[in-house]
Write a structure and sequence with these properties.
4 helices, mainly beta, lipopolysaccharide transport protein A fold, 749 residues, elongated
Length: 749
C-alpha cells in the first residue's frame, strides 16, 4: 500500500499549479522572488521604432528584386512593435512577410526568440512568427517569465505552439528543473499550458512523467498542489508512522477558492480536508484590506486506533458593516479534546477553542464604544474547565464638561456559563463612573482621579449580591526633559520621579463567584503591573487600596522617532507602601489575605539599538534581600530568515529557557531551530530544527520535531518540495514550524 501511495503522489504532482495558496486577491499577480540572480535575457532588449507604419532597416548590403528586399550583413529591421536581426533577411511587400536566416534574434511585445531561421507573416494586423531550432523567453512576464528550447516555435498574439521543446521558469541558462515534451501549447487567452508526453526533469534527472500535463501560466489556477510527506511516532509506540497529504486547488473565481486534500496517516487512516475562502467586501480601514470568510473542515471517518470518528470545523468571518460598525464571527470545534495531539499534531499548546459572535460599534469622534458578544469554549489538550460568556453587552462613553474634566461612564452586563453544572453561574452587571483632572499640566504635573463602581450579581443558585465601591487618587510627577547624544544619535531624555496615592474602599468579596478574574502577580510582579494600581484582571475582584507608590522612569528616545518605534532605553523602578495589611483575595470563599506593609521592589529595563532588543524584569524581596523572580530576553532580528531570540524566566518555582533562531548560510540556504526547556526538572518541552533551500525556481524544506507528551517524547519529520510555477501551497508543515518558532515565516518563496 505504501509503495502504491507514494507512486500516486508522484504522478499527481505533475498536475501541480502555481496557486500561492496563502494569497487570495481580485487581481492576482505573479510574485517576484527575493533571492534571484540578476535578471538576464536571451539577448539585450531593443527599443522599438518611434516611426509608426514604417520599417527602419539597416544592412551592409541590399538589393531589390521585384517586390522583395534582399538584405545581408548585420541586418536589423525595426518597427513600432517588433525587432528583427539576422545575417540575411528577405522582406516581401506583396504578402507582408519576412524570412530571416543565420543568427536570428526576434523580439515582439512579450517574447524573445533566438534561432537559426525565422519567418513572420502579417494578416490584418495579426502577426504569426515561426522559427526552427530556437531558444525562447517570455520576457514580458518579467522575472517569472518562462524560457526554453524548441525545434519549432509558432507564435501568434494569443498562443505559442512548441514542438519537441523544453519549458522552465528558472533563470535563462540555469534550468534546475524543466519540462521536456513532444509538444507544448501555451494558450495566452486561457492562461493555460498543455504539454504532450511531458517529463519533468530535476537537475537533468527525470522525476515525473505524464502523457498529458496542464498548468496555469501565471497567477492562480485549478490543479494539484505540492504534496506533503512526514514521519511521526504515536505515543507509546516505538515504530514510526508516515503521513502523505495530496491537496487539490480550485480557483473558483477571482474572489473565492477552495482547497480539498486527501491526507493518509498510516496509523490512523484517510482524512478528508477542505478549506473554502471568499472575499466579502473591502474593509473600511486606512490599509484598505479585504474582508474575508473561511470555512475549513477535516474528517476521519474511522480512526484505526480508537475506532471513533474524528473531525474539525473552523469558520471565521470579519466584515465592516460601515465606517463605525464591525461584525466578527468564529466557530471552532473538534470531535474530542485529543484531536490536535492525535490527528492534527499541531496547536498542542492550546488549552481551549473559543467560538464567538461579536458586533462592535466605535465612534472615535464622540468617544463612544459599544459591543455585543456571545462565545462558547471547548476544552482541548487537557485544558481545565473555565467560564464562557453566553452573552455580553457593553458600552462606554466619555463626556467633557470642558477639556480639563473628562468624565467616563461605562456599563457591561455578562451572562456566564460553566461546563460543570455544579459551578455557580449567573449574570454580572457592572457600572463605573470616573473623572480625572490635571491640576498642573507643566512642572510639576499633578493629576487627580475619582471613581465609583457598582456591581450586581444575579446568581442562579444563590442570593443576589450587590457591591458598590468608591475610589480616588492623586499623583505628583516631576518630569525632567533634556536633549543628549546616544551612539551619535540625537535623543530626548525624560526622567520622571513620581509618587502616586490610590484609595479604594475595602469590601468583602469572598461570597462572589470568580468568573473571569486572575492575579497579575501570580507569575511575576512587573513595573507596569505595580504602577497600574490594579492587581486583578476581570471584574469579580476589586482590590482595596490605601497606599502610596513611588516610581522612577527614565526614557531615551530618538528625536525623529515614530509612534511605533521602540524607546532606545526604558528604565523603570517602583515600590508600593500599604497602610492596610490585608488585601482582597481571589480565592473562592476567602475575603482577604495578609500582606506586608510594603511590596517587593520591581524594576524593568529595555534597550533597543538598531536590530538588537534586550529586556529584563526583576522582583526583589527586601525582607529576603534577594531577587525572587525574573524574566530576561534578548533578540537580534534582521528579518524572518535571520534572527535570534533568547528568553529565560524564573517565577520562583520553575526556570524555563527558550531559544529560537534562523540563520542564512547564503542567499539560498538557511537553518532554523527552536528549543524550550524547563531547567528545574531538566525536561525538554519542545525541540524543532530544520533546513531550507530557496532559489528562483525551486525550494525545499525539511524539519524535525520533538515534543513532550506527559513525560514521553513524540518525534516527527516533515518535508516539502516546491517547483516555482508548478506547485506551492500553505502546508501543515508551515503552520507547525511557525507555531514552534515564533518570528519565523515558513512560506517557501
Amino acid at each position: 500500500m505504501k509503495k502504491y501511495l507514494i507512486f500516486l503522489v508522484l504522478i499527481l504532482s505533475h498536475f501541480s499549479v502555481h496557486s500561492e495558496g496563502i494569497k487570495l486577491s481580485c487581481a492576482p499577480k505573479m510574485p517576484a522572488c527575493e533571492n534571484c540572480p540578476d535578471y538576464q535575457t536571451l539577448f539585450p532588449i531593443e527599443e522599438f521604432s518611434p516611426n509608426i507604419g514604417s520599417l527602419d532597416i539597416e544592412a551592409d548590403n541590399s538589393e531589390i528584386i521585384n517586390d522583395k528586399y534582399l538584405l545581408n550583413g548585420e541586418v536589423e529591421v525595426n518597427s513600432e512593435n517588433l525587432y528583427l536581426a539576422a545575417d540575411e533577411v528577405e522582406v516581401s511587400s506583396e504578402n507582408n512577410s519576412i524570412l530571416a536566416t543565420g543568427n536570428v534574434r526576434f523580439q515582439d511585445q512579450s517574447y524573445l526568440i533566438k534561432s537559426d531561421s525565422l519567418s513572420a507573416t502579417r494578416t490584418n494586423d495579426n502577426l504569426t512568427a515561426n522559427a526552427t531550432n530556437a531558444n525562447y523567453q517570455d520576457f514580458g512576464a518579467g522575472l517569472g517569465g518562462a524560457n526554453g528550447y524548441t525545434e519549432i516555435i509558432s507564435k501568434t498574439a494569443t498562443s505559442v505552439l512548441l514542438t519537441n521543446a523544453t519549458y522552465s521558469l528558472c533563470p535563462v541558462n540555469k534550468n534546475d528543473w524543466l519540462i521536456d515534451a513532444d509538444q507544448i501549447e501555451l494558450n495566452l487567452t486561457k492562461n493555460r499550458g498543455v504539454a504532450d508526453n511531458a517529463i519533468v526533469k530535476f537537475y537533468g534527472l527525470p522525476i515525473f512523467y505524464l502523457p498529458k500535463y496542464s498548468w496555469v501560466l501565471s497567477g492562480r489556477g485549478s490543479g494539484f498542489l505540492t504534496p506533503d510527506f512526514s514521519r511521526y511516532t504515536e505515543t507509546g509506540n516505538e515504530d514510526s508512522s508516515y503521513s502523505v497529504r495530496v491537496p487539490y486547488y480550485l480557483n473558483l473565481a477571482p474572489d473565492r477558492d477552495l482547497v480539498v486534500a486527501l491526507n493518509y496517516m498510516s496509523s490512523r487512516g484517510f482524512i478528508y480536508e477542505s478549506k473554502y475562502r471568499q472575499l466579502i467586501a473591502k474593509k473600511i480601514t486606512p490599509e484598505d484590506e479585504d474582508s474575508l470568510w473561511t470555512l475549513e473542515t477535516k474528517l476521519l471517518t474511522e480512526d484505526k486506533l480508537t475506532k471513533l470518528k474524528r473531525w474539525l470545523v473552523n469558520f471565521s468571518h470579519e466584515l465592516d458593516l460601515d465606517t463605525k460598525t464591525h461584525f466578527s464571527a468564529k466557530y471552532s470545534r473538534v470531535s474530542d479534546p485529543q484531536y490536535f495531539k492525535d490527528i492534527s499534531r499541531s496547536n498542542t499548546n492550546e488549552s481551549s477553542l473559543i467560538s464567538h459572535l461579536k458586533v462592535t460599534y466605535e465612534d472615535e469622534d464622540n468617544d463612544l464604544l459599544m459591543e455585543v458578544l456571545t462565545e462558547h469554549e471547548q476544552l482541548v489538550n487537557g485544558g481545565s474547565a473555565a467560564y464562557t460568556r453566553a452573552l455580553e453587552g457593553s458600552a462606554s462613553k466619555t463626556f467633557y464638561a470642558d477639556s480639563k474634566f473628562p468624565v467616563t461612564a461605562s456599563a457591561v452586563s455578562t451572562k456566564f456559563k460553566h461546563s460543570n453544572i455544579e459551578k455557580e453561574s449567573g449574570v454580572r452587571s457592572h457600572n463605573t463612573l470616573s473623572v480625572s483632572h490635571i491640576l498642573a499640566p507643566t512642572f510639576p504635573v499633578i493629576t487627580t482621579t475619582a471613581n465609583f463602581s457598582s456591581t450586581h450579581y444575579s446568581l442562579n443558585n444563590n442570593p443576589n449580591i450587590t457591591r458598590s465601591i468608591l475610589g480616588g487618587g492623586a499623583s505628583l510627577a516631576l518630569p525632567f526633559i533634556n536633549k543628549s547624544k546616544f551612539f551619535s544619535s540625537d535623543v530626548n531624555h525624560e526622567l520622571t520621579p513620581q509618587i502616586t496615592y490610590n484609595y479604594r474602599a475595602k469590601k468583602v468579596q469572598g461570597n462572589i463567584p470568580n468568573f473571569d478574574t486572575s492575579d497579575k502577580y501570580d507569575d511575576i510582579m512587573t513595573f507596569s503591573d505595580l504602577t497600574s494600581g490594579e492587581r486583578y484582571t476581570g471584574l469579580d475582584r476589586i482590590t482595596n487600596a490605601n497606599d502610596f507608590t513611588i516610581s522612577l522612569e527614565s526614557i531615551h528616545r530618538k528625536n525623529n522617532a515614530l509612534d511605533d518605534d521602540l524607546d532606545l532605553i526604558n528604565l523603570g523602578i517602583a515600590q508600593s507602601y500599604y497602610t492596610d495589611n490585608e488585601v482582597v483575595s481571589d480565592d473562592e470563599k476567602l475575603n482577604y489575605e495578609a500582606r506586608r506593609s510594603y511590596s517587593d521592589i520591581v524594576a524593568s529595563l529595555a534597550i533597543s539599538i538598531d536590530k538588537f532588543l534586550a529586556t529584563t524584569s526583576v522582583q526583589y524581596d527586601p525582607e529576603l534581600s534577594r531577587i525572587t523572580r525574573k524574566e530576561n530576553s534578548f533578540s537580534y532580528i534582521v528579518n524572518s530568515r535571520q534572527f535570534t531570540s533568547l528568553s529565560y524566566s524564573d517565577d520562583g518555582s520553575n526556570k524555563i529557557g527558550k531559544l529560537y533562531a534562523s540563520y542564512p548560510l547564503n542567499k539560498s540556504i538557511h537553518l532554523f531551530a527552536g528549543r524550550d526547556k524547563t531547567f528545574t526538572t531538566g525536561q525538554k518541552n519542545m525541540e524543532t530544527s530544520g533546513i531550507a533551500y530557496e532559489s528562483c525556481c525551486w525550494a525545499f524544506r525539511v524539519a524535525h520535531f520533538k515534543a513532550n507528551d506527559s513525560g514521553r517524547y513524540n518525534y516527527s519529520t516533515g518535508m516539502e518540495l516546491v517547483l516555482t510555477g508548478l506547485g506551492s501551497t500553505s502546508s501543515p508543515l508551515k503552520g507547525k514550524i511557525e507555531e514552534n518558532i515564533p518570528g519565523y515565516t515558513a512560506k517557501l518563496r
